[in-house]
C-alpha cells in the first residue's frame, strides 16, 4: 500500500471522471456526505434557471409548451432514469418522495389472503420504511406485532442472505429490503433474493435510496417486482428533489393501491371521468401533479450521469472506497487509533459509502466538521464516508485520513460535546 499524498495525486491524474469535479459547487473543505445530500452542479443550476424562465414566459401554457413538457415530467424523467437502473423506459417514473412511493407500492402489492398475510423486512432497514410497512399492515386490520416480520442481523451491521431466505416462509406475502444498507453500505444480492422469493410465490421490492446513482442496477435482469429510490442523494437532484419508482412490466395490469388523476390514461386525463382508468405503464402509479421546480435540477444532473456513464461512476466509487479502507488499515492501526471498518470489503458486496466505526464517532464527526470536512453520523458509532465519483478525488480521501489521524492522535475530538444534535 502506497500511503503517500503523491500516490493520491497520481490516481487523480489517471481518473477519467476527474473533469466533472469542476462542474460542481464544492463547499470549502472536503465534502464526504453525497449519500445524504448530493452537491449542486452548474448543470443542475442551469436546468433550474431554465424552468424558472419557462414559468415566467409561459405561465399556464408551460404545462405543454415547456421542454420537456411539465405535464409529462414524471414519465420523461423516468425514461432518462431507466438506463441507470437497467429498466425499460416505461417501467420507471419520477413521483413524490420515497416513503410515499413505498406506501404506494405496498398498497398495490400487499394483499394479505390465503394464509399469505405477512410482510418481511429486516431490522437494519431504514426506519421510515419500517414505519410505512407497519402502518400498511394496520390498514388491513392486522396487528404488525404478528404480521410484520424482521430478519435479524447477526453482527448489527450486515444481513446474511441465507437468513433472509430462511425467513421466506409460506405466510409471507411481500418482502421489502434495502439494496444497500444505509449504515454499513452492504449491497445485497438482489437477483438471488428475488429468485428465492419468486420460488415461494412472494412479491419482492427494494429500497434503492443508497444504491441508485452509485451502483449499476439491472432491475429487469434481477427480476425484482418493484423498487423505490430518491434523487437527492447520489443523483444530486437537490434538497427535496422528487423520488422514483420502478414497476416490473409484468405487473402493469395490477390495480394501483393509491390512485390519482396523474395515473389516468394521459390523453384522457382532462376528460374528468368519474371512474379511474389507469395508464398501462409505471406512470399509471403517479398520484398527483409533478413537483416541477424540485425536479428541474435533475434534468441537468441526469444529463451529467449520461455523459459520465454509470459503469465509470461505479468503478471510480469502488476505487475511492477501497482506497479509503486501505488507507485506514495502513495509517490508522486499530490498536492505536480505535477505528474499524463496518462495511463489506468485497467490492461486489459494497455500495457507495463506508461505515467507519469508533467509540467516539460523534465527537470525531464534530471535530471533522470543525475542520471543514463533512461526513455524517449514524448512531451509535458510525461515521459514514461517501467519496462520490463525480466530485470527490483520491486526494480528498487522503486528506480525510490525515485529518482523522490528527484528530485522534492529538485527542482533538475531546474538545467536542458528547451530546448529539437533532439532524446529523
Ligand atoms: C434517504 C432514504 C429514504 C428517503 O426517505 P424520504 O421519504 O425521501 O424522506 C428512504 N429510504 C432510505 C433507505 C433512505 O436512505
Characteristics:
single chain; alpha/beta; 7-stranded mixed β-sheet; 12% strand; globular; binds pyridoxal-5'-phosphate
Roughly what percent helix?
25-40%
The backbone outline, from C-alpha atoms, is globular
For the CA atoms, what is the radius of gyration?
22 Å
The side-by-side strand order for the widest beta sheet comes to 2-8-7-6-5-3-4
Give the helix/strand layout:
Blueprint: H1 5-13, E1 30-31, H2 42-58, H3 62-65, H4 73-85, E2 92-94, H5 98-109, E3 118-122, H6 127-139, H7 144-147, E4 148-151, H8 161-166, E5 172-178, H9 190-199, E6 203-207, H10 219-222, E7 226-229, E8 244-247, H11 292-308, H12 310-331, H13 334-337, E9 340-341, E10 354-357, H14 361-370, E11 373-374, E12 376-378, E13 382-385, H15 394-409
Parallel strand pairs: 1-11, 3-4, 3-5, 5-6, 6-7
Antiparallel strand pairs: 2-8, 7-8, 9-10, 10-13, 12-13
Helix pairs in contact: 1-15, 2-11, 4-11, 5-6, 12-15
The structure holds pyridoxal-5'-phosphate.
